[in-house]
Amino acid sequence: MPSFGGVLISLACIYVAYVGYQFLSIFYPKECTASSSTAYCLQPAFPLGKAKFTLELYGRASAVPGTKAEFIFAERSLKLTEPFERTFSVPLPVQVVKNASDYQITLALFPEGASHGVHSPDAVHSTITVTAFRKPGARARNLLGAGGDSSSKLGVGSESAKSDSPWIHWRSVLTINSLNSPFAFDRNAFPPELQHLVKLQSQDAYLPIISASRLSFKEADLVQVNSTDTRALLTLRFEPVSIGQLRLLQTLELSVESLKSFGFRDTDIDDVKAIFNDTNFYLLLLTIFVSVFHLVFDFLAFKNDIAFWRQMDRSVGISSTAVLWRCISGFVVLLYLAEEKTSLLVVAPAAVQLVIELWKLSKVFKVSISFRGLAWAPRSEAERKTGALDSQGTRYLSYVMLPLCAGAPIYSLMYVPHKSWYSWTINSMANCVYAFGFLFMTPQLFINYKMKSVAHLPWKALTYKAFNTFIDDLFAFIIRMPTAHRLACFRDDVIFIIYMYQRWLYPVDKSRHKRIRPEL
Description:
Keywords: Membrane, Transmembrane, Transmembrane helix. The radius of gyration is 30 Å and the shape is elongated. The chain is built from 13 helices and 17 strands. It has 520 residues and is α+β, with helices and mostly antiparallel strands. It has two domains: 41-136 and 166-243, no CATH class; 293-514, no CATH class. Helices cover 45% and strands 18% of the residues.
């Protein structure tokens, strides 16, 4: 009979195959052919790659109805198959400078030499807002600055820093996508995600498809507008894409904003955008593939870990120091990720892991909670021997850890800027966790060495966690996270390799292990 894990992995493979097929159907759609009796084909009105166009940009303050849009920029002799990038300054209306209005840009694309220009019947238009209101961020500074100022107040250098009210920010990068190759659409089966972009020249011809991409907007590109600013720089990127890429971008653009209703912040949504927007097709499929298996291995690791700790009634061979450290470090990491405004994709798993570690701590110290309060069960002789080994390993560890964890915060306080004293405290503790946290596995490794055995460890859960550790190495380059947290992903690889070396060094004698740990 197949195991539960095998069935789950098989279902994951089927799901990945289905998702891959759906992506292939989006990226490589079937083109309309005149040979089909039921097809009603729409052809490009102009030959792409040969016809030349003019692209003009106009801007206005959106909060002032009836305001005439002012000319900003023009790119002439443009071919829709050739990318380009231009940087220019945009005059800012007074309403925008005074934090009273958004700013909209209207794109107009029309054939070069068209008699009516932007008002030509062959012109296509697209409007997009290039500003956003954001609350000001805290400024980092040296807490031991001039005069020994130890205040935790934030620096004040602009109007927005004086209050917590949202302030207008300028999106410094605007990306325009166009269809880079001619494609014949079946009018009776037109892709719904592209319908709002298409303008017909006649019953069987469509005008060039362009789209001002909201998916390319990033929080990192936002620049604050101050009351003294009269102009703002804008980088315009014209990026032709294939029909498959355009369909995928439009599908995601229509759905990504709904993530806010699930508690995702703008920075979290940026991470989702980056996975799809900054990744080629094959790497995207790989990302989806490993994401599914990451969830599967997470579940299997969770299942086996819980099963191991539920059946464990004696903590022989288990380092209580290591478990306690995982609880403390998990709490510190959670505070650090929140302080750094890290993606919810990283924070949520860290929070779940902390709850599990707290439960494990209660099992190691044999603490039970009831209506009468807390109760501690007595420890066996074997557990007391494990505790003695654990204390010995912890003493050796303290000789290294105390100087490191004391010196690093002092150096950080003297030479590294921080937003506040709270920020310095959290960053100092987190740096200690990330840089030296793996050393807290020393007591467990010491116990294994003294017992000449690793059979007491939850190997099924450790194996699944190891698979996820290697997957995390890939995500470390895709999802936005603090550098220290990214390096910690590779640190976990080293810890698992050490465990595997000890497993090879101390082969499991199952008969001996059953005599020592009959509950296993």
